[in-house]
UniProtKB/TrEMBL annotation:
InterPro entries, per database record: F-box-like_dom_sf, F-box_dom, LRR_dom_sf, TPR-like_helical_dom_sf
UniProt-listed Gene3D superfamilies: 1.20.1280.50, Ribonuclease Inhibitor, Tetratricopeptide repeat domain
Top-level taxon: Eukaryota
Residue intervals of the F-box domain: 248-297
Identification of the protein by name: F-box domain-containing protein
Length: 739
């Protein structure tokens, strides 16, 4: 015990002497008394002079010849702070030890190092700035030029203990300065943020403390919390304050780029409403730094209910907020009374326009044809136009097709979607804009006449087309001139990857047999382009049981021109959708089998025939499914659609149900579309049993069906981890293409 007490006494004596005590005997008594050691015998000798004192102190008789390290000084200071008696006196002595430790840090280079006073962390926090950047870079005095940052843990620890000691003495201003000094020296360490935040909370400044804690967490976001106890303390200190300040903070106080990002999730209509909050919001959101917010002018269809559409003058002012180039995207909905002045303002103020979609023109409007070029416009859509063949308007006149406008955008235009084909496109020498970069074309003619449209002329005007969507009302197509078509066969749309064709059966059957055969011949020509090997997606949306054998027969007896057997391979087909017409299994094989062999096909549809008058219930569907034996077990199939089926009601178990057993053969089938109106109203219980059997036999992830609100189905699907969703039948356009 005596040895231990003596060692402790010797350490405390070192600390006392380091403070520069003149009366070293008095220092020894004070330290010994503080440590609780009885002073029984102290060697008596004459009081030495200053020179003799330093010599005696350094002699082995009293203390070993070791100069105190930073760790020694900090440890001695902590012992003084922990002593039970003479608190105030010991705190003052501890402050001296912590200061000595700071001064002995190598970063000082034997020069007195002061604190930089250029930084104002509280002001930066109030203005929403970066506290880390303030600590890291803000300095206008000589301190920053003379000294570098210091992440010496002993230096930071000494400052931390000194700040804590000042807090114990009630001197919060001094404690705050030391905490700020810690942050200045080591902005990437959590220590300074933690100490400064705690002192701010003692000063009842919780919001500043929350800002400090948050900044410290952000500065150490790449450091795992488990690797640092101080970082864990920082997170723990921040949590109680989050609910008070994180949710009610004015977003405009955040950095500008973050404000822009947050408001970008709002619609254009909602951003306009935000201008009503206050003048400050209006001034901030319309400033140049937030110009990207005004470059997407997508008016929602509900906007008309809440507020009138902007006038031309208001549009001009809004577009000025978008900065140079104006709007990049403009979308106008149905019922927007778009007039000539509004359209002219939006287009002329947006030379950098990239996307223009006009849902409806309620009056004849003329698009600019004054030579202005929109060399960034990639997407143009004009629905419900009044420039079709029935209206007799010439291109470029009010209400006519915007031929010159599109031609002036030819250097960039990639996507075109319109309804109403101009009469000039049907001429022997048609007036069609030449768009060499066009990738997707979707067109429809609601008031289709009896003059056929030549697809070959479109292939010349749009040579790099990748996706073509025709219909649902464009019923008169022509593949002529066939002689030229055959001659240039290898150059007609060599990049065509998507073919979508819809038409209404009743309108189609009302056409003459000549028009019907021309249209069917054109479809067959299109699917045979490039031997069908460039096509990745074929979607047919029409009821054509009467024509399926003609369209998809592998001979050309019924439809002279091109036979699928001679001209089509379809080795790269990804999906084949035909949910409205029943294709014979042999016709389906001509489209799908090669793509299954190359493992490219991932999705296809089966439309089942109706039972014949002499059939029992379900016979036709059973025969049809059995004829798809060639498709069973294809490993590439991930999605399958079954439409219009009706199977027999007398199945004893799952093995007796043809459809579940067929689906079970596809090892990677994940999405199933089941759409059969024959079950929904009359036999919902049978349909539910069929679905439950399918769940048991397959490894599905999603089922699309009309029986989406059935509770037993939802429960069973949940037990198998399957989502049940309603079938909407809508297609995404353009269709996303894989690599």
């Amino acid at each position: 015990m005596a040895g231990t007490a003596g060692a402790e006494l010797n350490g405390e004596l070192v600390a006392a002497i380091a403070l520069g005590a003149v009366d070293w005997f008095a220092a020894a008594r004070d330290v010994a008394s503080t440590a609780g050691v009885a002073v029984l015998e102290i060697p008596i000798c004459p009081v030495p002079g200053p020179s003799q004192l330093s010599q005696d102190i350094m002699s082995p008789y009293w203390v070993s010849k070791i100069e105190p390290t930073m760790a020694d000084l900090i440890g001695s200071g902590r012992q003084l702070c922990a002593a039970r008696k003479y608190k105030a006196k010991n705190y003052r002595r501890a402050l001296g030890l912590f200061t000595s430790a700071m001064k002995s840090c190598p970063c000082a280079r034997d020069i007195k190092r002061g604190r930089c006073t250029c930084k104002d962390f509280e002001k930066v926090a109030t203005q929403g700035g970066s506290i880390f950047r303030e600590a890291m870079y803000t300095c206008h005095c000589d301190i920053g030029r003379t000294f570098s940052k210091c992440d010496n843990l002993h230096h930071i620890e000494a400052l931390d203990f000194r700040a804590t000691t000042f807090v114990a003495l009630g001197e919060l201003e001094h404690a705050m300065k030391d905490a700020e000094w810690m942050l200045e020296l080591a902005p990437r360490l959590p220590d300074g943020y933690l100490r400064l935040g705690k002192i701010a909370q003692l000063q009842k400044n919780d919001e500043f403390a929350w800002n400090i804690y948050t900044s410290g967490i952000e500065a150490n976001e790449e450091t795992s919390v488990d690797t640092s106890s101080k970082l864990q303390q920082l997170h723990d200190a921040c949590k109680p304050l989050n609910w008070r300040f994180n949710c009610r903070r004015d977003p405009l106080c955040l950095p500008a780029e973050l404000v822009t990002h947050i408001f970008s999730y709002l619609t254009f209509d909602q951003i306009l409403l935000c201008l009503r909050v206050s003048k400050q919001w209006t001034c901030t959101l319309t400033s140049p730094v937030h110009a990207p917010l005004w470059r997407d002018m997508t008016f929602e269809s509900s906007y008309r209910v809440t507020k009138r559409f902007p006038s031309p003058e208001e549009l001009r002012r809004i577009l000025s907020w978008a900065g140079d180039g104006g709007a990049r995207k403009i979308v106008t909905p149905l019922f927007m009374e778009l007039n000539q002045s509004m359209l002219t303002v939006m287009l002329e103020a947006s030379p950098s326009l990239e996307h223009l979609a006009i849902e409806e023109l309620q009056s004849p409007i003329e698009f600019p044809s004054n030579g202005m070029i929109w060399n960034r416009l990639k997407y143009f859509s004009l629905r419900d136009g009044s420039f079709g063949i029935r209206y007799g308007r010439r291109v470029d006149e009010p209400g006519g097709f915007p031929h010159s406008f599109l031609q002036h955008s030819a250097s960039s235009l990639e996507h075109l979607y319109f309804e109403g084909i101009p009469a000039q496109w049907y001429d022997r020498e048609p007036l069609i804009p030449f768009l060499p970069k066009l990738k997707t074309l979707r067109m429809n003619e609601p008031l289709c006449g009896h003059i056929p449209l030549s697809i070959f002329h479109l292939s010349i005007a749009f040579p790099r087309l990748e996706q073509l969507f025709i219909g649902p009302n464009l019923l008169n197509l022509d593949s002529k001139p066939v002689a030229i078509w055959r001659e240039k066969w290898g150059n007609v749309w060599p990049h065509l990857k998507v073919l979508v064709f819809h038409f209404d059966l009743h309108d189609f059957m009302g056409r003459s047999i000549i028009h019907q055969m021309k249209t069917l011949s054109t479809i067959r020509h299109l699917v045979c382009l490039n031997r069908g090997n460039s096509l990745q997606h074929i979607h047919f949306g029409f009821v054509a049981e009467e024509w399926s054998d003609i369209l998809f027969s592998r001979s050309d007896d019924l439809l002279p021109g091109f036979s699928l057997a001679e001209y089509a391979e379809f080795q790269n087909l990804r999906s084949f959708r035909s949910n409205q017409f029943c294709m014979s299994p042999d016709g389906a094989r001509s489209f799908l089998f090669n793509a299954m062999k190359t493992k490219q096909l991932t999705s296809f549809d089966i439309k089942f025939p109706k039972d014949g008058v002499s059939d029992r219930v379900g016979d036709a569907s059973t025969r049809h499914l059995k004829a798809y034996e060639w498709a069973r077990g294809a490993p590439s199939i991930q999605q399958l659609g079954c439409h219009g089926f009706r199977f027999g009601p007398n199945s004893k178990n799952d093995e007796d149900m043809p459809l579940p057993q067929f689906l079970a053969t596809f090892p990677n089938l994940r999405t199933l579309i089941l759409n059969s109106w024959m079950y929904y109203n009359d036999k919902p219980a049978e349909f539910l049993n069929l679905l439950l059997a399918i769940l048991r036999c397959t490894h599905l992830e999603t089922i699309y069906t009309g029986l989406v609100d059935n509770e037993p189905l939802k429960q069973a699907a949940g037990e198998h981890g399957v989502r049940v969703m309603g079938w909407h039948g809508l297609e995404q356009w353009p269709i996303p293409l894989g690599a």
